[in-house]
Every structure is written in C-alpha cells, then in structure tokens.
Design goal:
There is one protein chain. By secondary structure, this protein is an all-alpha fold. The protein has a single domain, classed as Up-down Bundle (Growth Hormone, Chain: A). 81% of the residues lie in helices and 0% in strands.
C-alpha cells in the first residue's frame, strides 16, 4: 500500500507532459508555468519535514490519508484555475495545496515501511519510493492520454478527472499504513537486534542535535545537488526532446498539427520510459547501497552523471539523448532510494522520521532552483538553453562529488560537553 500511495503521488513527475499545454491555456511563459511544478516540490519538502516531526504524534494513517486528500484537492483547484485562467490560483491549488499533500503522503510510507523491515532497509525503502518514480509512467502513458481523448483535449476536465482518481486511490492506500506492534521483528531478525537499534548509542541523541550537525549538512547538500541535476530533466524533458527533434523537421511543417502531435507523443514516451528508470533506480541503488555502503553508492551516482552531462553537450541524436536522460533519471531515483537507509544508518531509527523529513527540504529547494534555471534559459537563450543546462548541472554535480569524499558511513556521535566527557572517563 505504501508503494501504491507513492505511485499515485509520483504522477507529479509527469509535469513536463502538461508544461506546454498549460502555457498555451493561459498564454503564459515557460517560467510562469514551471512555477506550479516548482512550488509543488518546494511545499513537498516543507510538508515532509513537518510530517516527519509529527509522524509519531498523528500516526502514519492520518498523515497518509491527509496527504492523499490534499493532493486530489490540489488537482481540482488547478482545474478551476485553468478554467478562469488564474495563475495565482494555479500556484495555490497545484503548488501549495497539492505540494503539501505530496509531502505528507511521501514521508509516511517510507518511514513506516522501514520499521516493518529493519533487516532490509535499503531494499525496502528503495522499493517503496520506486512507486513514486513510476508515477510519471502512469500519468504520461495512461491517465493523461486517456482523459485527453475522453474530454476532447479539454485540459480543465483532464485535471478534474485526475483529481478524482487521486482521491479514489490515495485514501484507501493511506488507510492501511500503520506502525508494527511493539517489539515486532521479522523472523530472520531478532527482537534483540531491533531493541539494540532503538536503544543503542542513538537513544540519547536529540533530533535537534542530528539536524544541526555537520554530517546532516553534508548529506543535505549531496542530496540537494543530485536532485537539481535530475529535476532539470523531469520538469522539461519533453520540451527539450521536442526541441531536438524539431531540428530535423522542415520549418514549414512546424505548424502542422499532425507534426506537433507526433512531437508531443515522442515527449510523452520519453517521460514514460525515463520514469521507469527513475523507479528502478530507487530500487537498484537502494539495494546496492546495502552491499557497498551508502557513501560509495552516492559517489557512483554523482560521479557517473558528471560524465553523462558533459557528453550531452555533444549529443544531437534524439535516441542517444533519450538514453542518457534515462540514465540521469536512474541516478536521480538512486538518491531517493539510498538516502532513507543512509539516514537510518547514521542517525538511528528513533530519529529517522524527523531527520529524513528535514532532509527532504533539500528536495523542496531543488524543486525551485532546478526547473527555474531551465525555464530562465529557455525564455532567454532559446538556441543554447540545453547546452547551458548541461554545463550548469555538471558544475553542481562536481561540487556534490567533492562533498561525498568528506562524508563517511559512520554513525553520528555528537560532541559531548567537557563535564559529560569527565563523567564518561
């Protein structure tokens, strides 16, 4: 059920499918339309931080169902905003209300599933968040095309139908999310091992000490920089591919509705295929991190992307471009698949909801920075926007790679005051 909830929420990653239709519906610029997606991801991060702190108080069921309810309402408000061509209302509905729903719904199944499978942290959290990565596939190849065809291309009705579907799927899925019983342990994992994890060295550490530690800051920065690189593609992968395809089309045919429809279909296919890699990346890298360590995994994720973005500067073939985009999304998903278990290893299960929720603020901020960088470049440097995007991503990833060599897999131990050190000695 956690994976199903994530699948529904992950439909937000298909925004680039709607980027150009939304622009056309309100006669808005790239940047104006992209702010709806940016705000959704920003408020996702803020709500996830709040949800992580308050998960023990309210429990997973209430937060998950509240998240699903708000996400569905966000689509319905966005539909009304499109009908009256109100950009502020679109921001409020899709961005603020929908984004808060995303955050409350996202953090809950990750933290809850980790408690049910303490012996397979990377594998299981990777599987749950894999659902979020696959959400764009469901939207781009199933929901959006079906509803567009059914409504005769009426975007208002499409958003309304999607809102209803989100409510129907997320509310029952959220209802089934509950914490395991006290002292629960899988058959292959002793209760003593669970108790040691809960009551060990981390038991006396406060959430404040964890969140304001240098190690948290480094983990946050690595997460932030990896997300920016991937979210640049997520928000604009369809338009970027269409721009590349237009270079091989006769200028006189660029206004032909059939040609434009073919270009849009190609963009939708890339969204769908790359979303599979986004989902598989969470599963694959999360499982690999159990074997080779979390930091080593992030070094591979980030370092390999530097080479990919530099290669994209010279790629003019749509197929090869699409392959590299899929690899970037594989690594983007890998960050989300590996970070929950990284937090568990470093800060312990007791502080996991608060610390992981706080670290998701990196996602929120990256959701503002990444799409707006690409939107600014497309609005102001149309002919060279793609090249500038790839250079920017390469520089950011190099910074992230440098930080990974400062990090370690060791558990967090706060510096004790001199008085406490004396007592320990």
């Amino acid at each position: 059920m956690g994976t199903l909830l994530q699948l529904a929420l992950g439909t937000v990653y298909a925004w680039s499918f709607f980027q150009q239709p939304v622009m056309a519906a309100g006669n808005w610029t790239n940047s104006q339309a992209a702010w709806a997606f940016s705000l959704a991801i920003f408020f996702l991060g803020l709500a996830a931080a709040w949800g992580g702190v308050n998960l023990p108080k309210f429990g997973p069921r209430k937060l998950a169902m509240s998240g699903g309810l708000l996400y569905g309402i966000g689509y319905l408000l966005a539909a009304y905003a499109l009908s009256v061509k109100s950009l502020p209302l679109l921001y409020f509905g899709y961005g603020v209300v929908g984004g808060i729903g995303l955050g409350l719904g996202y953090v809950t199944p990750v933290a809850t599933a980790a408690k049910w499978f303490p012996d397979k942290k990377g594998f299981i959290t990777g599987m749950v968040v894999m659902g979020f990565g696959l959400g764009a596939l469901v939207m781009a190849k199933v929901l959006a095309p079906v509803f567009l065809d059914f409504s005769g291309g009426n975007l208002v009705r499409v958003f309304s139908y999607i809102g209803v579907i989100m409510l129907v799927v997320t509310l029952p899925a959220g209802y089934f999310l509950v914490n395991p019983p006290t002292a629960y342990a899988p058959r292959s994992y002793s209760i003593a091992a669970v108790s040691a994890g809960e009551q060990g060295l981390q038991a006396g550490i406060t959430a404040k000490e964890c969140v304001f530690s240098g190690k948290f800051a480094l983990m946050w920065a690595v997460f932030f920089l990896n997300i920016i690189a991937g979210i640049m593609f997520i928000s604009f992968q369809s338009p970027l591919l269409q721009d590349l395809l237009k270079e091989s089309v006769e200028p006189a045919l660029l206004n032909d509705p059939r040609v434009l429809a073919d270009l849009a279909a190609s963009g939708a296919t890339l969204i769908a295929v790359s979303s599979v890699f986004n989902g598989l990346g969470r599963f694959f890298w999360g499982g690999l991190s159990d074997k080779i360590g979390r930091v080593q995994t992030f070094r591979l994720i980030i370092g390999s992307q530097v080479a990919v973005f530099l290669a994209l500067l010279f790629i003019k073939t749509p197929l090869l471009f699409s392959v590299l985009v899929c690899y970037v999304l594989l690594c983007y998903g890998g960050g989300f698949g590996s970070m929950p278990s990284f937090v568990l290893d470093v800060f312990g299960p007791r502080q996991m909801p608060v610390v992981y929720g706080s670290i998701l603020t990196a996602w929120g901020l990256a959701g503002i920075v990444g799409p707006q960088i690409v939107a600014f470049l497309k609005d102001n440097y149309a002919g060279q926007a793609a090249q500038y995007t790839f250079v920017t991503a390469s520089v950011l990833l190099l910074a992230g790679l440098f930080i990974t060599f400062i990090l370690s897999n060791k558990r967090f131990v706060p510096k004790l005051p001199l008085k406490e050190i004396a007592v320990v000695e």
